[in-house]
Design brief:
single chain, about 350 residues, mainly beta, Neuraminidase, five-stranded antiparallel sheet, four-stranded antiparallel sheet, about 5% helix, about 45% strand, 6-blade_b-propeller_TolB-like, WD40
């Protein structure tokens, strides 16, 4: 990361708009696949792709690809498969201009059976007077959902801050588990439920709309009695944005994305790994965007990958040690985002 040029140029601002336009607007031409590596028989990939115009949820396995959601008026994104592998949650947002696509300020949280049937809306912004919400994931026992929401913070003169919330498995009875009046994002449970990892601003950091040099990876435990985070520890400390944490299957390490700042996330983000003791390792570093990691038991990391400045996002994989990088599913005129790998 030390070689990254952190200067934001006018070209960077223009490229940000161009990439958003290329990746979020509906694709009109027939989908064309560049890379399609067969998957092992014991795993399936779930993801969102705009190959038919709007972003829809798909499942890919050794038997082929299956579309799970279908609604030309909405985008579906941010999916997470339940621990029992019988259901998945995802966000739904209306089709529209760039600012409305895949946007947490226009999102509803939905629940589906694993085959895409029996869709049910769980949370809309009006339900709890939230201004935005995203990053919902499951507790290991499937009894709770963990997420981030932008809410009025009574401890800071009712300013809006992002906090972490727990609900039941149907998105009911939300409880705010974060306390510091700062910014929290992208929470996820460890596989054994002992820890919660998330990205957050450090204590005393001024709140910013673009906290490019302040977001760090944290880990904490949940006080089940008080329903609050406890024993919070900051695992990373650098001059970069750290986010998208994902535990490895053994729960001992966290894979995350790192970038110089908000605008640089458009141009390149690297993958790193941090242990629960705070030791950091490089996983994949180059001039590309790598985010939304998901792992399996053998240590392989699957992630959303965009190799070029104006290219489409695809799915790639690499070992946690950085070896055997491979693009496994890539389209020439459509993007693939938010992958989750599931072992059977």
């Amino acid at each position: 990361m030390s070689k990254i040029n952190v200067k934001i140029t006018q070209f960077g601002l223009i490229s940000c708009l161009l990439i958003s336009t290329f990746q979020l607007k509906a694709q009109k031409s027939a989908p064309k696949t560049l890379v399609d590596v067969p998957l092992e028989s014991n795993i399936s990939l779930f993801y969102s792709t705009n190959k038919t115009g709007t972003y829809q949820i798909y499942k890919k396995s050794a038997d082929g690809e299956k579309q799970l959601t279908e609604d030309v008026n909405f985008n579906f994104w941010g999916l997470k498969v339940s621990p029992d592998k019988k259901k998945f949650i995802c966000y739904r947002s209306p089709k529209g201009l760039i600012v409305k696509d895949n946007n947490s300020k226009n999102a509803e949280l939905w629940l589906f059976d694993i085959d895409g049937s029996n869709g049910e809306k769980l949370i809309s912004l009006a339900d709890y007077k939230w201004r935005s919400h995203n990053s919902a994931s499951w507790s290991p026992d499937g009894k709770q959902l963990l997420m981030a929401a932008e809410v009025s913070d009574k401890n800071d003169f009712n300013k809006f801050h992002w906090h972490l919330f727990l609900t039941d498995s149907l998105g009911k009875d939300p409880v705010q588990i974060s306390s510091r009046s700062t910014m929290f994002a992208e929470p996820v449970f460890s596989p054994n439920g002992q820890y919660i990892a998330y990205s957050a601003l450090s204590e005393g950091t001024p709140y910013s709309l673009c906290p490019s040099k302040y977001m760090e990876i944290y880990v904490a435990q949940l006080d089940s009695t008080a329903q609050k985070l406890k024993n919070e520890r900051k695992l990373t400390s650098n001059d970069f944005w750290d986010g998208n944490p994902c535990f490895t299957a053994d729960g001992q390490d966290i894979v995350y994305s790192i970038a110089p700042g908000c605008l640089n996330q458009v141009e390149y983000m690297d993958l790193q790994l941090v242990s629960l003791t705070g030791k950091v390792y490089d996983v994949k570093t180059d001039k590309s965007v790598k985010m939304n990691a998901t792992t399996i038991a053998d240590g392989t990391v699957y992630f959303q990958y965009r190799p070029g400045l104006t290219g489409n996002s695809c799915i790639a994989r690499v070992e946690t040690g950085g070896d055997n990088f491979t693009i496994i599913y890539q389209g020439s005129n459509f993007s693939i985002i938010n992958p989750q790998v599931v072992e059977y």
